[in-house]
Each structure stands twice: as structure tokens, then as C-alpha cells.
Design brief:
heterodimer, A: 2 helices, 34% strand, B: six-stranded mixed β-sheet, 17 strands, 34% helix, globular
Chain lengths: 74, 614
């Protein structure tokens, strides 16, 4: 199945801004991040279709998966 | 200190060196002071707030209001980022509705903290005020620290950087804390910053200072006629033992600091990256904290700015995190030219998108002006954004020069005129200004301290910050990062993890170490570099007491526990549909949050302040 992946800030500088991505049905977000070759510690926030999501959540055909780096300040 | 003392059992076994300087007479008194509790031991605001709590101050600009300079336990050690110096006093800026000043501290890095510690002093209390402009020379003497007040009329009118460079010619082995023209104009500017010198600044003669900006401690210095503090000592760099080396390695490798490290090292590139992350939710402040759901801020993304400027990742003294993003102009031949500005998230947004200015070169110039004049970028930027908003709403009766969003030249004029004391109103902050203008709903402050560049619509935790929105309550990213918005989650965050943000403002390290204050790294750092065995839960308990003492001081200074622990009313009355994060802050939400948080805090606040008459 195909999903869209959007990366932000340091993550996109390392890989790409946005891409169509082929993955197996039932794959969870952790597996996709591993497939991308991103250390999980580099990812601070995960959104599926604009909603916050956890590592173990599965993605579905046509989902937009956004990965944001860890944020900090102060 | 003996090896591996346990100060929680016997804090008086830890002694710190205090000097009290009477600026009126020039007299100095030294004292070796035994610590009363663990807050004294850890230092920073944990110690200074106990001194402030002993005084009843009703006006920041009175001789009885002290300016306290101190360090944390790890300042001057070889633990990475251990450079912090702290400036505390009753703030000219932060004020309750009853007109009383709030206690404040402000802190910065650079090399001044190290040099100060190496003079042999842990704390200086500046009492009263000098009749004439002076600077204080703190130096290492043959038999202990020595202090001297010196005439400083020749420094009047110079920028903070110029003062530092002038003094460095006379004291080549020293570092400096100075005020800019804004601090000199303390009558009209309550948001003066303390400008701290860096090695890089002195060697390059470029204004790469660091700032202790919040709460107007630079203005308090100005009131006292104290234009600069010189810390002169030989370098006493602590030997790096294998254990200290391991702590520093772990600081660098920790995920907490990685986000602040240079992109070229695989890091996140500092707080600048927050723009892009928050823009994913259209939650970057724009036009006075009112995002429009458009892509205007994207011109300030790092890769866009890189097209025009050379970006260098630079560092404070011996810090491997290298969080400074200094922007340099490019010469025609492509080589690196003059320093344009340092780009951190706060000034970048508060002098950029939040003023409707999106051209990076113009944003650089505005930041640069603020820095040179020595003002707090958060307070000034947020106050100016209010003016631009007001003027957009009242084009026929505008404030000041009529500046509106995006009008760079008029905004630059407001900055210069404020810092040079040519106009009053702006420098006194957005709370006073909005009250005078009669429109407070979109004045972005809590308890008189202007908000940093994280939307109040996303952070009800701001109301329990005691020294600036995100520096003293670490809940500012919670909604964007984790999507949390239930009452239970916010009560938990404010009453447990959020308040521990202030722990770094005790121990002498920078928050960009990025681990929780009770982390094993901190325990090891204190053990190896300070020779003190303090358990994680003891550190956490001490930080909690220090925070709660600050909160108790706010109530004592007249801050109303309901009416002033609130957000700008625009947040509740006119939620912004352009922000894609959930809108959840209502008046009812804040009322319940207050009730539940006070319910946790108040019993613990009992006995933290001296009883009346003590």
C-alpha cells in the first residue's frame, strides 16, 4: 500500500521533504521509521493525517505520515 | 570542601564566599557564609531568592533593592556548559496589579561566570546606588578576592559590546558583564539586559555577547549607576578527570542536547528548527501572536536563510553543544563577511514574523539593534508587536510613530528611540503600555513579563511560570510535541515536570544539556566536579522548594492568585482558527487548572518564606 511521508527540519535535510512511500499493510509507524533509516531518538513528534500518533499505531492506505524532529527551547 | 560531602545532611558544611558592596560608600565586606539548606548549596536563584525573601521591597528602584550576582555549584567547573552567572533582584518590569515588583532572576553564559567564580567569589550583593557612574572590579588577590569601584563616566553611552571592548583593553585577562544604553536609561527602560562577554567576542571584536535579559536586571544595574562588572582572574580550569570526561561525553551524546547541536554534526541546528516544526501546525507567532495559516514564516527557514547568509555554529567557552547560529554577510567573492546577527528562535520570531518582517536581512538588523542597545529581545519584541497590532486596529489614532506590521524602518526607529531613552512607554513593557492604551486583551504577557515566541493558545502552563514563560515552566512544547490537552495531563505537567525547568538556574549549567534535573548525569556531575553526593530525589526536592518559594514570593508581592494567573484574554475570547492544534483553553479550563494546581502547591508553600517580622 502507498502512504505519503512528510519530513520536517533536520529530518528533511537528511532525507527528503515529501515522498510517496510503499509499505506493507499493517506496518506500524516504528517499522516505517526504521525503514527510512532514521534513529527513533531523532523523531520527536509523529502525526498521522494531522493528529498526534504513537509508535505502535498502524498506518492505512493513503495516510499522510508526518515526522517532526525533537523540539526544544528555553 | 571535603571529598563527597553529603550536603543534604549537613548543608552548613558547605561554605560560600560572599562580598557585599555598598555602592553609596564604596565599602566592601567579605563573609564566609554557611549554607542553610540544599537550595543554598546548589546556588543561583535558589540562594538569591532566599535573600530577596528577607526584604520587603515595594519599588524596584529603591536603594534597598539589592542586585545579587551569584553562580551555581557547577559554574567554573569543567562540566560542559558550566558557565552560568545569575543576576537577581526585584524587577522593574514584573509587577503585580497592586504595583509591587516581582522577584526575578536572569541568567546567561559566556565566560563571565567562570571568571567571576575564579576570583574566589560565589556571590556579590550590590547594595544602595552610586552617585556617579562606576564599574566594579572583582579580582583575584594574593590572599583572596578583592573588589574596587572605579569611575565609569567614560563608558556612558557606549553599547554593551563597546563597553566590553573598552574594558578588555584595560583588563585583558578578564571577562565582563555590562549594560547597554538601555540600562543607562533605566527611568524609561525597564527591560534592560545584562550583556555578558564571550571569548569569541573579545578575540574577534564582533558583538557575539550573551545576555541575561529577562526582568530588567540591566535596568536595575543602571539605576544603581553600575555600568559594568569586571571579573579578573587567572584561568583555573578544573582538571578533566576520566569521570568528568564521561559526563561531558554523555552530555554531547544525550538526545536532549542533540537537538541544539549543529546540523553538520547531525544535530537539530539549535532552537531555530522550532520554526519549521511549529509551522507544521501554523503555530509560529505572526503579527502579534496571531498566525494566519499562511506560509509567510517560511522565508525564515534555515535553508532559505542559507541562500543569503553564511551560517556558523559557534559555542560558548569549551562547550561542545555549539548552539549559537551566527549569521555572517557574504562578501562579493563568496567569502565570509561581517557578523549580521545571532539567530535564535526567540529573537528571530519576535523581531521577524511577529512584527510582520520576513526578510532575513531586515530581521538580522532589528535583532542586532536590540542586542547592541542591551534590551531583552523577548520583552522588546513582544511590546512592539502590541503597538503594531494596536495601530492596525486604530489607523486614525496610532501609537508612537504609527508603525504597522512589516514597516521595518519605523520599527527600527522605535527600537533605537527606546534604547536611547528618547521615548518612554515601550521600554516599560507591554503590561503598562496596554493599560495606558486601554486595550489589554492582546497584550502578550503574564504577570507583567512578556511572552516568548510560543503561542499562549498552546500553553496554559505560562500562568505558573515565575521568571519568564518558558524558562521557568517547561510546558511550552507539550501540546505541539505530544498533543496533550486534558486537565489531568496539564495539572500533572505543571505540578511535576514543568516546574523543574528552573533547576538549571540553580546549578550553573545551561538548559541545553537537555536532560531532566534529576537525571543521573546531573548527580554524577555534582559528584565529580563539586565533590558532593546529592541524590536525584534530593536535587528534585530542592528545586521544587526553590520554585515554590518563588511562587510564594509572587503572592506576597501582591499577585492575585486568580486574576493575575491568567493568559491574555484574546486566547479565551477569540480562539485562532488558523492554528491547527486543538483549541482547548477556556476560562473554565484555566479556573479549574488554577484550583487544582494551587491545591497541590499551597500546602507545600507553607513556611518557605520568613514569617513577617523576622
Amino acid at each position: 500500500m502507498r502512504i505519503k511521508i512528510k519530513l520536517y527540519a533536520s529530518l528533511r535535510w537528511k532525507l527528503f521533504d515529501e515522498a510517496e512511500w510503499e509499505c506493507d499493510p499493517g506496518h506500524d509507524i516504528a517499522a516505517i521509521v526504521e525503514q527510512l533509516g532514521l534513529p527513533r531518538a531523532d523523531v520527536g513528534t509523529v502525526l498521522v493525517n494531522g493528529m498526534h500518533a504513537g509508535w505502535e499505531e498502524p498506518v492505512r492506505e493513503g495516510d499522510v505520515l508526518a515526522l517532526l524532529p525533537r523540539m526544544g527551547g528555553g | 570542601m571535603s571529598d563527597k560531602q553529603q550536603p543534604s545532611k549537613n548543608p552548613a558544611s558547605v561554605i560560600y564566599q560572599r562580598c557585599t558592596i555598598d555602592l553609596a560608600s564604596g565599602a566592601a565586606a567579605f563573609a564566609k557564609v554557611p549554607c542553610k539548606n540544599l537550595e543554598d548549596v546548589l546556588g543561583g536563584f535558589g540562594r538569591s531568592f532566599q535573600i530577596l525573601a528577607e526584604r520587603r521591597i515595594t519599588d524596584a528602584y529603591t536603594p534597598e533593592n539589592p542586585l545579587i550576582l551569584n553562580t551555581g555549584l557547577l559554574t567554573g567547573t569543567s562540566i560542559m556548559t558550566g558557565m552560568r552567572s545569575y543576576f537577581s533582584g526585584y524587577s522593574p518590569l514584573k509587577k503585580s496589579d497592586k504595583g509591587m515588583p516581582g522577584a526575578m532572576w536572569s541568567t546567561g553564559s559566556g565566560n563571565f561566570g567562570n571568571k567571576f567564580k575564579w576570583t574566589g567569589l560565589d556571590e556579590v550583593i550590590f547594595e544602595n546606588r552610586s552617585e556617579q557612574p562606576v564599574y566594579a572590579l572583582l579580582k583575584e588577590g594574593a590572599s583572596g578576592p578583592e573588589v574596587e569601584l572605579k569611575p565609569a563616566s567614560h563608558l556612558m553611552g557606549l553599547t554593551g559590546h563597546e563597553k566590553i571592548m573598552a574594558l578588555s583593553k584595560e583588563y585583558p585577562d578578564a571577562h565582563f558583564a555590562a549594560i547597554g544604553p538601555a540600562g543607562e536609561n533605566w527611568r524609561t527602560v525597564f527591560m534592560g539586559a545584562v550583556v555578558l562577554s564571550t571569548d569569541n567576542e573579545i578575540s574577534s571584536d564582533e558583538p557575539k555577547s550573551r545576555f541575561a535579559g529577562r526582568g530588567g536586571m540591566g535596568s536595575l544595574m543602571g539605576y544603581k549607576n553600575l555600568l559594568a562588572i569586571v571579573a579578573q582572574s587567572s584561568d583555573k580550569i578544573q582538571k578533566i578527570t576520566p569521570e568528568i570526561r564521561d559526563v561531558n561525553r554523555d552530555i554531547i551524546k544525550s538526545g536532549g542536547s542533540a537537538r541544539f547541536q549543529p546540523v553538520s554534526q547531525g544535530g537539530g541546528g539549535g532552537t531555530w528548527a522550532n520554526i519549521e516544526v511549529l509551522q507544521a501546525f501554523h503555530a509560529v507567532p505572526l503579527n502579534n501572536f496571531r498566525p494566519k495559516g499562511n506560509d509567510d514564516v517560511e522565508r525564515l527557514f534555515r535553508d532559505e536563510v542559507e541562500k543569503e547568509f553564511d551560517i556558523a555554529s559557534e559555542a560558548c567557552f569549551r562547550c561542545g553543544i555549539r548552539c549559537h547560529n551566527n549569521l555572517f554577510h557574504r562578501n562579493e567573492d563568496g567569502s565570509r563577511g561581517k557578523l549580521a546577527a545571532k539567530f535564535d528562535f526567540e529573537p528571530l520570531i519576535l523581531f521577524g514574523s511577529n512584527l510582520g518582517v520576513h526578510d532575513p536581512a531586515l530581521v538580522c538588523d532589528l535583532i542586532h539593534r536590540c542586542d547592541l542597545l542591551g534590551m531583552d529581545a523577548i520583552s522588546l519584541g513582544t511590546t512592539i508587536s502590541y503597538i503594531l497590532d494596536y495601530n492596525e486596529r486604530h489607523p486614525d489614532q496610532p501609537l508612537f510613530n504609527g508603525a504597522s506590521f512589516g514597516e521595518y524602518e519605523k520599527i527600527a526607529e522605535l527600537i533605537d528611540d527606546t534604547g536611547r531613552g528618547r521615548i518612554s512607554g515601550i521600554g516599560q513593557g507591554v503590561k503598562r503600555l496596554s493599560e495606558e492604551a486601554g486595550e489589554t486583551s492582546y497584550a502578550m504577557h503574564v504577570k507583567g513579563l512578556e511572552l516568548p515566541a510560543y503561542l499562549p493558545d498552546t500553553n496554559p502552563g505560562y500562568i505558573f511560570a515565575i521568571a519568564g514563560g518558558h524558562m521557568s515552566m517547561g510546558t511550552h512544547m507539550m501540546l505541539a510535541k505530544e498533543g496533550k490537552r486534558s486537565m489531568d495531563e496539564w495539572v500533572q505537567a505543571v505540578t511535576t515536570g514543568g516546574l523543574l525547568q528552573v533547576g538549571y538556574d540553580m546549578i550553573g549549567l545551561c538548559k541545553f544539556v537537555g536532560v531532566g534535573i534529576g537525571h543521573d548525569l546531573i548527580v554524577r556531575a555534582l559528584r565529580e566536579a563539586a565533590g558532593l553526593e546529592i541524590a536525584s530525589q534530593e536535587i528534585v526536592a530542592s528545586v521544587r522548594r526553590a520554585y515554590l518559594r518563588g511562587l510564594a514570593l509572587e503572592l506576597r508581592q501582591g499577585f492575585h492568585e486568580d486574576e493575575e494567573y491568567t493568559l491574555p484574554s484574546q486566547v479565551m475570547d477569540n480562539p485562532n482558527p488558523a492554528v491547527t492544534l486543538p483549541s482547548f483553553i477556556t476560562r473554565e479550563f484555566l479556573a479549574e487548572l488554577r484550583q487544582r494546581v494551587w491545591g497541590v502547591f499551597k500546602p507545600e508553600m507553607e513556611g518557605l518564606l520568613p514569617a513577617a517580622g523576622e
